[in-house]
Recover the amino acids of this structure.
């Protein structure tokens, strides 16, 4: 369970870093740019911690998938970025992919421990 907390912290750090990077306006606002770099560094630190027990493929899929979805929502709300039907459908597909990867990973664990998900 602790590894998923590390993954959540990594995702939050990446979201903060990406938002600060946009706000830094290409590092023309140096303080915000430096905060973005710090946020990214902490994000990678916690991501490395979660990789001790979560497989790389699953952890990276969750991290990037959740990051893409929430970053898109942040862009729409905070930066008034436009979206369309294709973007929404792509985000839904990403969410479905994350769910399937998690189910696959749990099924592997269940098979190794000799019990079923159902």
């Amino acid at each position: 369970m602790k590894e998923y907390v590390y993954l959540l912290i990594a995702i939050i750090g990446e979201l903060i870093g990406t938002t600060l990077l946009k706000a830094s306006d290409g590092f023309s606002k140096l303080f915000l740019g430096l905060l973005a770099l710090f946020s990214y560094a902490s994000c990678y630190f916690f991501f490395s911690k979660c990789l001790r027990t979560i497989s790389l493929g699953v952890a990276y899929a969750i991290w990037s998938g959740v990051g893409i979805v929430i970053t898109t929502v942040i862009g729409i709300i905070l930066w008034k970025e436009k979206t369309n039907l294709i973007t929404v459908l792509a985000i839904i597909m990403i969410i479905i992919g994350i769910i399937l990867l998690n189910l696959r990973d749990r099924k592997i664990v269940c098979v190794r421990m000799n019990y079923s998900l159902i």
